[in-house]
Write a structure and sequence with these properties.
The protein is mostly beta strands and about 150 residues long. Helix content is about 10%, strand content about 40%. Keywords: Signal.
Length: about 150
């Protein structure tokens, strides 16, 4: 009887310990890739114009498991009127990166996209971290939340 009680208490204590340990705490995977906006030259509550030039400081990290024979890049893209689509014009605003972690500045003149009928209003942009999959082709591996520019009331 004493052995059964001891075994039962041990199993009960083990279950209590397991319940207090978060699931997956011992098996955390590698950190994911990330990108974050640190500074943007556009003042709050102002709407950009066609003459505005966005200048943003971003920090990015490429996860250890990410590999690409074509490299990686950071870019700024703008929300399109096509749902789920973003775009920019040309290669300005696309910066190839060689470090797995760094802080960099992205500049983009809005005159390049301002008259494009696909540009959704209010103006919304994202900063992306890309894994290049082939020349001129990439996959987004991290992005900032949307940055929406509208007047404050």
């Amino acid at each position: 009887m004493k052995k059964q009680l001891t075994a039962w208490l041990c199993s009960l204590m083990g279950a209590a310990l397991m319940a207090s340990t978060p699931v997956g705490a011992a098996r955390q995977g590698p950190a994911p890739s990330s990108i974050a906006l640190l500074v943007l030259n556009q003042p709050p509550c102002t709407v950009p114009t066609s003459q505005s030039v966005f200048k943003a400081k971003v920090v990015y990290t490429i996860a250890r498991q990410e590999q690409s024979e074509h490299g990686f890049a950071v870019s700024i893209k703008f929300q399109s009127t096509d749902p789920g689509m973003t775009f920019s014009s040309g290669q300005q605003g696309v910066i190839p990166v060689s470090s797995r972690h760094d802080t960099l500045t992205v500049e983009y003149p809005l005159a390049r996209i301002w008259a494009n009928p696909r540009l959704k209003r209010p103006l919304t942009c994202y900063f992306y971290l890309h894994r290049n999959t082939a020349p001129g082709r990439s996959t987004v591996i991290a992005q900032t939340p949307p940055i929406v520019f509208r007047e404050c009331l």
